[in-house]
Specification:
mainly beta, four-stranded antiparallel beta sheet, about 55% strand, globular
Length: about 190
Amino acid sequence: VKPSPFLLKEQISITEKTYLKNNKTHVSRKNNSLKIECSNGKNMVFENNEENGESYLFYGLTEDNNCFIVRSYGEYDSHGQLLINKETCQIDSLDGYPRFSPNGDYIAIGEYIEEEGAFGYLSLYKKANSEYIEIGSIILYDLEYSFAPYDLFWIDDKTIFVKKLKTNGDDENNYYFDYAKITIDYYNELK
């Protein structure tokens, strides 16, 4: 079972050791270098750079086992996900942790952006040939409460279930989970 995709950088670096151990034939770390070997023989190396805050952490495989996931961090702890095709080493860059629809046609990504006013958002991508194209992004907010997407689940090929961590008013110690169901049709209506 994967931990919540919305962990802090320090928490993910601990889980990286487990993911490296489970994928040691294709992925390795030596000091600040993360090396990935694809089936076509091509190697990719990602170098951490402490001076500018750039770092890369291996985060396992996508749910369909077709891509390696590398979480990238930049200045001010900004982050995103790199999906690296296991066969070709082609890289797709995404802003959050991907959750694939059961048929593989869509990716849903939830993220919490604290430095931009503390809001959660949900983005949806559609598969077009061998890449994913963003079809929409919505802000998940509630005027009375603050919350972050905690996890995402696909109910079926067209419906996303969002588990939200909410705090009650100004009391950060008083939190609970809430849920939202969002359909792909809702994204189509936004166009």
